[in-house]
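Lab notebook: predicted structure, single chain.

Context: the supervisor wants predicted structures on file for every construct in the current expression panel, including those that have not yet been purified. This is the next one on the list. No modifications to the sequence; it matches the entry in the shared construct table.
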Amino acid sequence: MTVKTAVVVGAGIVGACLAYRLARAGLHVTILDAGQAHNKASGASWAWLNAASARDKPYYDLRKAGVAAYHDLEQELSGRLKIDWSGALVWDPDLYTPKAGGHPQKDWGGTMKIVNADEIRILEPLLTSPPQGALYSAEDGLVDGAHATQTVIESAQAIGARCAFGRRVQSLLHQDDRIIGVQTNYGTLQADVTILAAGTGNPDLLAAFDIALPTAHKAGLLITTAPISKRLTRALWTDTVHVKQLSDGRLVIGEYDHGPGGLDDPEATIARMIEITQKMMPALGVLSVERTTIATRPIPGDGYPVIGAIPSLPGAYIAMMHSGFTLAAVTAQLLSQEILGGNESPLLAPYRLSRFVQ
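Prediction complete. Output recorded below exactly as produced.
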């Protein structure tokens, strides 16, 4: 079957990159979303492009390919993505513990290196009491999640993709043993292929066909401050907060973690995050909160991505993951190749939906 039309369900960064890549390949693409672009997790993401959080070699390889794919996309879009490639300092006990010997990337051919407190002071002079050790991941990129998503969508539109916002996808259209499009609250839309990139909305669409996709979704809180005059030289992923700075001087601060009920009092959590950040870097001065967001991150049950064809539903594909930002560009590259030519990348082999389907 020749693929000429595609529906992408979801206008976050994953859906945006897929729409762009498929439109670039010549397909007639429609992006559907119940809200607007980046209105959920993508607009409330810390948006760190990295391989540092991979805990096994296959996932590391996929995330490294994800970072590389952004260099390709950045070049294609003539720098409009505004990616900051200054790297990150990481001291998160889930990712790096000095007593445990650091990070397995040293055996995977990665460029990440372990730095001591004196080296950390040089890499980020604003830190007054750096940890005894950290990972320095020099190749990491940082973006403004909302801006990046909007930029990719506009780039997709410029080459023919169509956006249909305010349309909630209620179900998939099933005819002659294949998916032929979607039913929305404003009628049907047919297509040769339908791609589910709806984040936390994906499991409900699959459940109608008795396909159970386990999830471990998690809410996260993000703070954006008013612009400050001091400049961070690196992003910081610490054991308490994550801090990066946008090109306009605003800080974006994410929480490391919270226990049950931790977001029942968001204002208390916000105050604590600001206090920790100011204590860590007093030279920043008084930080003024400009905006806060709480969004649920779409996470498959085992924590790994779900990417590829839906075996029992020909014509339908799924792309669901956290971190969506790191993996969006490479997912779009590899999945579009699969859709158009049947070329299945070995990088995606561990991340098929079939691992959950008995």
